[in-house]
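Batch 3, record 17
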Amino acid sequence: SQQGEEDPQALSIQEGENATMNCSYKTSINNLQWYRQNSGRGLVHLILIRSNEREKHSGRLRVTLDTSKKSSSLLITASRAADTASYFCATVAIGGGSQGNLIFGKGTKLSVKP
Amino acid sequence: DTGVSQNPRHKITKRGQNVTFRCDPISEHNRLYWYRQTLGQGPEFLTYFQNEAQLEKSRLLSDRFSAERPKGSFSTLEIQRTEQGDSAMYLCASAPLSGVADTQYFGPGTRLTVL
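Prediction for the assembled complex:
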């Protein structure tokens, strides 16, 4: 079953604006990762934040993690039309014989209009 | 680094037929995962290989599904007696052995349509 939910399910913004997507999860985690998927394609890893980290940056991406609320957010600054894609958060559970398989949310579909 | 490749990219089959998909991981990666993604959903884990050993299987992997990684390199996923509910994107991902919880590298997927 899915680990949690991304919010919003769909987001439409103008080029240059910032896009914020949220993710909630259910279990204790080792880390949380964000992936991007262009329509009909495979997933591309964007950023990984470990459970003992609160914030991480990579280029125009900023990720936060609040383990007390079991939530994370992904901020894309100064968005471009090329950022149009679906964005998924994924977690790796702690213990339970986990072999590192990712548990994904349902994704946020981002549309950036030029 | 040629990335993870999957073949075929698209497969259309009739209900009841068998299909087989292939995944070629990044060459030095010991870990290989299969996921299934239906329309509008995130990927769901199917099975995991560490080298040639299949170490974990999801309850989603019914007995019509079988996966192999015979020499610890490429992997195949076979679906027997396909059903319309099997229509989905099948994704393969690989990762190095160090750090069980680290980044996975995904292939482009095989889109299966069962008529």
